[in-house]
């Protein structure tokens, strides 16, 4: 990188806030999706919002692409550096700025860890609802970028439901405030657009969150079924009975075996395990849990356990939360996928996954947010066996195609990032994608903020429709239109 | 612009033979009379008409059933009404997946009746449900009492199809509840007042109908005491669906709370509520109290203004006290319905010049503490009063979004903020 620019960056963040030696840069060459790697030119660790603005100003002036990074736990390559670009790590901006209990709001910097928000408000019996499995290490800024979900979003909603306002540094270095502590700020809901935009619209430097009062009680039921089909039928009956559980999770036999090997949650060895959590007033939850129990038995559950205490609940959840990492116990390598299907398509999609698994000779374990149809197939492989990695990748994309064919989505919570941008054209038409990119052009006409992610093909801003406006790169003589 | 007969012919052919007619007095938009009303049969026709109008520089006012057509600033131009009235089909109620795909012109009532056949609902209580359309409630971001529990329409919509000004039909989101592929344009379209595109269809996540419901009403000596009640309920472990305050000039404030649960859950929560607030005076009224927000619109008299205030939940009482001081000084009559979310609907009646002064003063106070005041219904004589107030430092960015999606400002020109 140009020494002059490096010098300018150092003047902003100090020597301790600038990483430019190749050995140290290796830490930042990928996120949680480790099979994609790009070395950044430099990594900057600003301490506050003015430093972020100053950095972005220089990037804008010099046309240097940048990628914002939280904890780097993302699973789709959203924080993967881009060629000839820098990484801006928000890890040092990790202060909780304000806790407002009467209004149930918390204001944080983007580097704050998800679970620390709950930790801060727990004594007053509040919690921050979005709970991705990585919540003990992932950052709020990363959650905002990905619109992270978690097991409890069936009832409580996703990150976007809980973000009321944002302070954002736009890709030209200017500052805007989207949404706010009060609801329904006049104007377009750009906070709603920004959440889940995977870092392509700018960098959030402050986030206003909503917190939720803890329910009076929480009960978790664990039921063992012969297969995922019976478990799926039980879920349908629970929904049809007019209940909205706080969470409904499903695991197949391979996932159960892996969890057992890793953290010994003492799950029954069955074909389909269901975990149903209800919360709310005690009288209500106890009444409804009896119905859940009945409906599970009606659909063939041969063992049912009800966790009553916090300790018992923790044990039930332990195996589920550890499920991804547990794959390491039964396979040297694995790919985590993140498709969504209409829940009713589960039996047909599971049958297809089994067929694909047999066809390729690769094992697939399934962990499923059954309430909202979010499927996490884990494709197991060994990279030391020639061709297996490619076969596993190709199988995981074929599973996403199954999800699309069933009317679902290519991602429920991990994001598109680098990994799935090619799948976007299978889910959306050209005009759909073009419309999204026009919105991107309003935020980032030079395409500096995490460019090359999300969309399969970049779009020069100002192309069409309406009057022709030359792209700034054209005006500068850097690009030419043919 | 004045429409030539050749443009009219093209529009007629795009809209469908019998779907273009001359506008009449009933089609007036905030005092502006358009020339034509197009009522296409399907979204392709709608997109084709819109594209022709955009090309010819004809200003287009999208309309559902027109219940909220007077919200926002009066249009700079209004040459053609583009009605979604005939796009009124419910395309798919995937009840086992708790989703519905519906066209924009379907009324809220029809939708809810269809969903109820499978014991479900869109968890949204909008104004005038028997007439209001899905496209209209989305575009105006109507917000009712259920919002406290289920969130706003932005939290319930999971997919949208928009007809853009140049005639593109673009979809985003999807048909599954959990989906983060691509930008969340359903949220962008919600509350955009039809200025970015015409919503032709939407997909929503649904909720089961409750097992049972119970409303309890109570009163307090003054607003401060009522605020304390509201905050202690919000800080409790009650799982209520809605909580609102009703108050009018010279009266004690009343409040209503709605529980939705099984019989066991209703009984338990009612006794917890009585214990929490130490009530003796709580009563079970009729469900009619939940029409209070809509009732603010009647009687429909010329010198009444209705505004939506949004303040922090803990500032409701303070805002109402300020309102009382300001409107009393202007000798206006006032009535409010405040949700525990902080979203408050206000009706002011009196001399027009005094209403205008009160609105500006109140807006300054509310904006000063981070809230907003949006004028919904205005008297004819107050056409110049800005509906939106201060939009903040993102106004330039919002204008850029508008330029990207509707560069010729064909849709609803002048009705939104910042000249949009």
Summarize the structure.
Chain A is of the alpha+beta class.
List the helices and strands and how they pair.
The complex is a heterodimer of chains A (482) and B (420).
Chain A: H1 3-13, E1 18-19, H2 22-25, E2 42-44, H3 49-62, E3 66-69, E4 86-89, E5 96-100, E6 105-108, H4 114-121, E7 126-127, H5 140-146, H6 153-156, H7 159-162, E8 163-169, E9 175-179, H8 190-194, E10 203-210, E11 212-213, E12 217-225, H9 228-240, E13 247-252, H10 253-263, E14 272-280, H11 282-298, E15 303-307, H12 310-321, H13 323-326, E16 333-336, E17 339-340, H14 346-360, E18 364-369, E19 374-381, H15 388-405, H16 424-427, H17 430-443, H18 472-475
Parallel strand pairs in A: 2-4, 3-4
Antiparallel strand pairs in A: 1-2, 5-6, 6-10, 7-11, 8-9, 8-10, 12-14, 12-15, 13-14, 13-18, 16-19, 17-19, 18-19
Chain B: H1 5-15, E1 20-22, E2 36-38, H2 43-56, E3 60-63, E4 80-83, E5 90-94, E6 99-103, H3 108-116, E7 120-121, H4 134-139, H5 147-150, H6 153-156, E8 157-163, E9 169-173, H7 185-189, E10 198-205, E11 207-208, E12 213-219, H8 223-234, E13 242-248, E14 254-260, H9 263-277, H10 292-295, E15 304-310, H11 316-329, E16 333-339, E17 343-349, H12 352-368, E18 372-377, H13 395-405
Parallel strand pairs in B: 2-4, 3-4
Antiparallel strand pairs in B: 1-2, 5-6, 6-10, 7-11, 8-9, 8-10, 12-14, 13-14, 13-16, 15-17, 15-18, 16-17
